[in-house]
């Protein structure tokens, strides 16, 4: 686990809620589902940039607060008739602590 970066505890995120983590490559939204699964995707909706962390979580999906596109939290894929995707990221939960991979904290090569 040494190479993973801790970003906080599961119990600091409300069920069916999210919090943002700032990375050098933009904000990622870390979600907690009703059944305590944790997912991380880009916070920025690919439609018009809505903040997905402020969306409505249902099951393992989130509905964008701006125009109601729905994204699968595990894959980042838009669902139904909506097209597009956000990047999804690996997360690891150990003893209630959430970890992300260190490459998220590195600046992307130009
Ligand atoms: S900005 Fe997300 S659905 Fe339009």
Write structural notes for this entry.
This protein has 110 residues and is mostly beta strands. It has one domain: Rieske [2Fe-2S] iron-sulphur domain (Rieske Iron-sulfur Protein, 3-layer Sandwich). The chain has no helices and 10 strands. It has strands at 5-9, 17-23, 26-32, 38-42, 56-58, 61-63, 70-72, 88-89, 91-94, 97-100. The mean pLDDT is 92.
Summary of the model, kept short:
This protein is mostly beta strands and 110 residues long. It is built from no helices and 10 strands. Helices cover 0% and strands 39% of the residues.
| C-alpha Rg (nearest Å) | 13 Å
Q: Segments where pLDDT lies below 50 for 5+ residues?
A: none
Order of helices and strands: EEEEEEEEEE
Bulk shape: globular
Count of folded domains: 1
The proportion of residues forming helix, as a percent range, comes to: under 10%
Examine the secondary-structure arrangement and name the CATH architecture: 3-layer Sandwich
Average pLDDT works out at 92
Strand proportion, as a percent range, falls in 35-45%
Helical run tally: 0
**Count of beta strands:** 10
**Class from helix and strand fractions:** mainly beta
Largest sheet: 4 strands, antiparallel
Which fold name fills CATH's third level, the topology? Rieske Iron-sulfur Protein
The CATH H-level superfamily is Rieske [2Fe-2S] iron-sulphur domain
Within the largest sheet, what's the order of strands? 2-3-4-8
């Amino acid at each position: 686990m040494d190479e993973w970066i801790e970003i906080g505890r599961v119990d600091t995120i409300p069920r069916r809620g999210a919090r943002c983590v700032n990375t050098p490559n933009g904000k990622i939204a870390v979600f907690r589902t009703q059944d305590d699964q944790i997912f991380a995707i880009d916070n920025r909706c690919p439609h018009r940039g809505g903040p997905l962390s402020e969306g409505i979580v249902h099951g393992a999906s989130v509905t964008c607060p701006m125009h109601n596109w729905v994204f699968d939290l595990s894959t980042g894929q838009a669902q139904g008739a909506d097209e597009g995707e956000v990047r999804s990221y690996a997360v690891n939960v150990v003893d209630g602590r959430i970890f992300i991979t260190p490459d998220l904290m590195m600046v992307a090569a130009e």
